[in-house]
Design a protein that fits this description.
The structure holds two protein chains of two kinds.
Chain A lengths: L1 H16 L28 E4 L11 E7 L7 E2 L5 E2 L5 E9 L9 E11 L4 E8 L6 E3 L4 E8 L5 E8 L2 H8 E2 L2 E2 L6 H4 L2 E3 L4 E3 H8 L25 H12 L56 H6 L18 H12 L4
Antiparallel strand pairs in A: 1-2, 2-5, 3-4, 5-6, 6-7, 7-8, 9-10, 11-12, 13-14
Chain B lengths: L15 H12 L5 E3 L3 E4 L2 E6 L2 E6 L6 E4 L5 E22 L6 E17 L11 E6 L2 E6 L2 E3 L4 E6 L2 E6 L2 E3 L3 E6 L2 E6 L2 E3 L3 E6 L10 E6 L2 E3 L20 E6 L2 E6 L2 E3 L4 E6 L18 E6 L2 E3 L10 H10 L6 E3 L20 E4 L6 E3 L2 H4 L5 H4 L25
Chain lengths: ~350, ~400
Amino acid sequence: MHRYILLIFLAFSWLSTSPLDYAKPTLSQFGFFKEPLNLQNPTDGVIPYSVASSLFSDYAEKLRFIKVPNDQKLTTNSDGSFNYPKSSVLIKTFYYPGNFNEPEKNRRIIETRLLIKTKTDWVALPYVWNNEQTDAVLEIAGDRLPVNWIDKNNNHIEIEYSVPNMNQCKGCHVHHNEFKPLGPKLKNLNFSYHYNDTTFNQIDKWVELGILEASPLFAELPKSINYDDPHSGSVKERARAWLDVNCANCHQLGGPAETSGLFLTSEELNRRKLGVMKPPIAAGRGAGNHKYTIVPGYPDKSIMVYRINSTDPGIMMPELGRKLVHQEGLDLIRQWIEEMNP
Amino acid sequence: MRFIFIITLISSLFSSYEKDVQTRLILAEPGDTIHLGEGTFSIQGSLSMEGKQNIVIAGNGIDKTILSFKGQTDGAEGLRINNCKNITMVDFTIQDSKGDAIKAQDIDGIIFRRIKAEWTNGPKPENGAYGLYPVLCQNVLIEHSIAVGASDAGIYVGQSKNIIVRNSEAYHNVAGIEIENSIQADVYDNYAHHNTAGILVFDLPDLVQKEGEYIRVYNNRSEFNNLDNFAPPGNIVGSVPAGTGIMILATKNVEIFENQIVENKTVGTAIVSYFITEEPMTDSLYNPYTSSISIHDNTYKRSKQIPDLGHEIGQLLFAKFWRDVPEIVYDGMPDPQFIDGNGNLLDGYNLCIQNNRNAEFVNLEIDKHFEKWYSPFIAKFSQDETPFDCQLSAIAPTTLSVE
């Protein structure tokens, strides 16, 4: 009898400590996609979606999907984030077209990241695709792979692409010791998405599909800003949206970069905390001979611009997830600082 | 059944050692020891551990297990540990990381024992900022460890509580040992030498944890810290003069005693407010002053030599005192909330200087003497020590719950 209790206890303690309890060795085993897997055609109940502003990942294109268990729904928090029922899954696939001028052709998928909701937490699982593009394999320690493509200006680009390990996933996703999904928020979903044959606002569609509980908050939905699209907002709004999605996951109270005192969420109102005339704390050579994070009117004297413009791992920001400078983002931040009032 | 994961080798640029160690850091369970093995191992990306309890990361010896990040392409730190409880690191060296060597954040109970953080090309601004770097931690023990070549601080404890740094050595860093915005720390039996500054106790604005206090620095050797300041410009330690033994900046309740402060060319011990940095201050919750500081029973030795002429303080001291500059320098900026009607600090909040050997003193009174750029050069600085001949009650020793 005692032995059984011990076994149950062991099984339970294993459950509570191992993230791998929710894992499968290969992506195909989850059944999220029809064969052949590389077409990324979702099976029933796996819903494609998109976000207005997206984290820069070395120009990788991304496909996003959400799966919510049958007969269950997300609910909405007052800050525009969602509560997810257990076993909800967020799926994100990263790929490069061979040539960005022909984005639908010669697609090479690099990795698919899964976020799976457990009873109290989330598990992050990185799957790396094989060369044959038939399936992807769990790589809990991440990976580094040579990747090349032809960009929109017909330049041949070659990088060593980094797939983050499970800890690095947490680096961005954990706030106040709690793991949270980042992309799906009201302010990032409130726009039209092209479903198979028709176009719908994503929030409306999720409610219609029965995966999202309608909320009084939906009466006044926050505007979605796509930093890439000059029509979606002012330079300031787009710059703040870029910082929000690329930097604020770490640079917020409770985030891993709170030690810097630099807070970059789009909700931040304190100019000093946003970096205006703020000396660095522990930037080391990341400061690049400059004294302040932002000097209004002077992008070239601003540490923020210096670090976004670097690819040296000891200097660059964000410090993970890229080998290239996001030129469009850099230009936007430069313009914002140039036009900023002192 | 335990899950068995498959290792793919298809066109991966990952060394098997690095992948193996990283995998074990991810899968570690409470009570595990992660053995790093013996040898010099080249690592390309930051190693990381997250959300673990009761883990030991062990090498075979400070010179036997070396993780070299010379060719680092991913991440800034060598080793990064986040959100953990009771983590012990023993017997290994981290070399040449692009950023900080070991950064540990949000840990309750962290031990660095016989750990070395090192940049092997000598003191260079291209080196990473911090060697051993616990931040926002509680119950921190750093002992028998070594930090060499950091372009900011070799051993740097920031925004933490309950800290002991002992029996450790720091050289060729900008700051040897720095305790910043931290509460209740004992720094003793250390050897800080040939840095720009030996030991710093700092409190800076705009941080999550403010109001550092209850810091004891005793029985250390702070010697020959005369290295030219090689911090990249823009960093606060860049404003520290070369030749600094011990500096207290904007911190309260600090006791500096029984140290050997030897041959630091500019200032043996400085007690200064944040105003000395001439940086703007907008943090309304920040206190830029020092108060309740006790400097006693230290032994100073300083041969006649030229202070750091690349620094304003060095220039001023040289203009006034030639090669024979005083060992203890106070900026004379008392905290106004603790001042009586005569402008003197209230009992218990004073600066007290007693029983130091071979120590001359100067009070710069910067609020009086620094109105015009030339005013310090014509001012007569007080060297009267009597107002500071007092005693404060001893600060209680730090006790850790990890020892």
